[in-house]
Prior knowledge:
The protein is of the alpha/beta class. It folds into two domains: 5-244, no CATH class; 249-374, CBS-domain. The chain contains 13 helices and nine strands. A four-stranded mixed β-sheet has the order 1-2-3-4. It has a three-stranded mixed β-sheet with strand order 7-8-9. α2 (47-78) packs parallel to α4 (139-159), α3 runs antiparallel to α5 (167-180) and α6 packs antiparallel against α7 (214-244). It is elongated and about 80 Å long. The model has no long low-confidence stretch (mean pLDDT 85).
Amino acid sequence: MFGRSIRLFTLFGFxxxxxxxxxxxxxxxxxxxxxxxxxxxxxxxPQAAYWWMGxxxxxGLFFSIVFHELSHSLVARRFGLPIKGITLFVFGGxxxxxxxxxxxxxxxxxxxxxxxxxxxxxxxxxxxQTAGRAVAWPIPVTGVIGYLxxxxxxxxxxxxxxxxxxxxxxxxxxILWKWKGNIGWATRLSSRIGTAFGFxxxxxxxxxxxxxxxxGGIWWFMIGMFLQNAARMSYQQLITRQALEGETVMxxxxxxxxxxxxxxxxxxxxxxxxxxxxxxxxPVVLGxxxxxxxxxxxxxxxxxxxxxxxxxxxxxxTCSKENTIDPETDIVRVLSQMKRTGNSRxxxxxxxxxxxxxxxxxxxxxxxxxxxxxHYED
Length: 378
């Protein structure tokens, strides 16, 4: 779902990040408010005032989304669910959970916390706007506060639409889960509703576009595309977790991986290992002990005319938590580490002994076979 993200700060132990796409959103919101909404409702203000209102309106929306997602995260923490952080992206934000909720009750409370917090925030902003008008605060100030009150109600209302993975869809999933006791069936049904709702938004966007509302039509179309894609991805993530449930690195690792001795030349490393086995990374082993790892990244740093003088041991890097894994680690956590580090192969190590190697392609092959044999529905 996410591309490159930038860490902004830590709040209550959660890293708050923005996806690069949110920078585009911030600009579009500021521009839309400064050139459209505020001039329409508040006539004859200086252009500079509209732009400042747009900036503070966008900042207030940023705060509102963080507050919304933080509410989800705090409830998740109460139920012992690890949250990696909060990331804002082009259509809002998400609290990144590493696993599914432990129960339907936990799912319901986590889902409802976000819209409830947005309603509370809307009431606070409405109260501030009323107080500001009573003491004659400047129109730009009360105008921005009123906008934030309204947008938080919209945020709560939109998220409560029963279309997974919106909060309303998660509430629906929790109810279906409680009813049937089957999270897979509940997720499949709520995801299909989410996909259908996404198609509805796409259709609405096309109608708006061809009716002359170009900007509105584009926004509805993009939100619909995002929602149907997110619904499918959420279900795929669930069935992947179910397929990998109980599986550890020990079960899926290659127990006799190709290793490299530290005393061979870089030329031999390239010709006898890289070109022969087509791997980008190899463990460097001496006397049965892992002493480092070497790959194409390190090879590229050595000029070709030095390939016969330099050895694999000379250019090998020390192993770290980024490229090693314990054999008892859950496979879902392995996938998370691979995604975070960009490493498609991890060395399986215990007490500095190389036990094996686990590769992304082997995990994906296992998932494909498991889903086929278990007859999971797409």
